[in-house]
Backbone:
């Protein structure tokens, strides 16, 4: 079947538009946080897997970090364990930690590995415990959520923050031509497991790898202002203001905070992208039309 001349020209234009991006990003590392609808809708899952494989084939180094909050919630429900969050972080007691490790490190990680492999890529799944990839310590959380004074620290259990990323494990996989798929579980000095927000893990991994881009897939069109308009481009200074006036709250807080940290630490750009759009990753990387919010460190 051949295309009519108009469609053929459009296809050629799209491929041609991709050329400078392929040239610019060959050899560069892109950390992609896979989450939201893209992770549960079958068509979107496959479009995501193919985008990642294409990136690899044109010489980029995609590194996938995944979430799985809803999947953890589903299993906790079945086990009659209540889910509680403080500022977007899951309160994680020992029982919950077992479920988190089972779901993220087991079910979800292997589903994504399988998804990429089934579409023709070669993925290897690890958690932050493998090869001591992610060293973590307990997150010291300050919150006003429970009516506490802002300076008070509250204990939300086995929730971690990243202390160090040993990039050797990731480098080894990249050089072996594999696509690393990482579950956001960290390990403490004593071998304890920590549940870490997947956005924060993606941000830290991007920092330690000196990545070109950090891409965070989510279920909204991007970062929105108070009237619901998507803010397409933002600098670090503007973001600080939006956090202070309450425009950014809940699950968007860790997303934005890690995007800010990443660009301040030298990652060229961070993108909050709409994972409900088929091929969102491809569109964001290879075309002039983005599908979300771009955060850069233009202030510094
Ligand atoms: N300014 C904002 N713009 C867009 N979404 C926001 C904003 N502030 C808070 N949110 C909330 O953050 C949510 C995204 O975070 P989360 O649900 O944790 O995403 P994910 O599961 O993809 O990691 C949105 O669904 C929205 O409810
Ligand atoms: C501490 C904390 O909240 N950890 C998250 C880890 C998974 C995650 O971040 O998944 P999403 O990206 O799908 O939300 C959790 O337990 O849900």
Residues:
């Amino acid at each position: 079947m051949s295309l009519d001349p108009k469609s053929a020209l459009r296809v050629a234009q799209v491929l041609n538009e991709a050329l400078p991006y392929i040239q610019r990003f060959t050899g560069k590392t892109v950390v992609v946080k896979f989450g939201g609808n893209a992770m549960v809708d079958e068509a979107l899952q496959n479009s995501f897997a193919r985008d990642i494989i294409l990136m690899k084939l044109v010489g980029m180094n995609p590194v996938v970090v995944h979430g799985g909050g809803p999947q953890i919630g589903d299993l906790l429900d079945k086990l009659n364990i209540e889910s509680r969050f403080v500022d977007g972080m899951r309160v994680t007691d020992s029982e919950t930690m077992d479920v988190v490790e089972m779901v993220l490190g087991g079910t979800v990680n292997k589903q994504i590995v399988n998804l990429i492999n089934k579409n023709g890529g070669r993925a290897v799944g690890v958690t932050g415990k493998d090869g001591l990839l992610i060293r973590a310590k307990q997150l010291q959380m300050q919150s006003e959520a429970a009516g506490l004074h802002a300076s008070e620290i509250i204990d939300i259990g086995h929730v971690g923050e990243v202390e160090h990323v040993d990039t050797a494990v990731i480098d080894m996989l990249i050089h072996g031509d594999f696509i690393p798929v990482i579950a956001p579980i960290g390990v403490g000095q004593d071998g304890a497991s920590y549940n870490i927000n997947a956005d924060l893990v993606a941000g830290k991994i991007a920092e330690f790898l000196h990545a070109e881009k950090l891409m965070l897939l989510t279920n909204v069109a991007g970062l929105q202002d108070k009237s619901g308009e998507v803010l397409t481009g933002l600098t670090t200074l503007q973001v600080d203001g939006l956090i202070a006036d309450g425009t950014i709250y809940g699950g968007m807080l860790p997303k934005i905070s890690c995007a800010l940290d990443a660009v301040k630490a030298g990652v060229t750009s961070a993108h909050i992208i709409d994972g409900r759009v088929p091929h969102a990753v491809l569109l964001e990387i290879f075309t002039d039309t983005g599908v979300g919010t771009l955060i850069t460190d233009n202030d510094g």
Remarks:
- Residues 35-36, 67, 69, 88, 218-220, 223-224, 247-252, 255 surround adenosine-5'-diphosphate (ligand 1) (CB under 6 Å).
- Residues 94-118 form the longest helix (25 residues).
- The domain at 27-296 is CATH 3.40.1160.10 (Carbamate kinase).
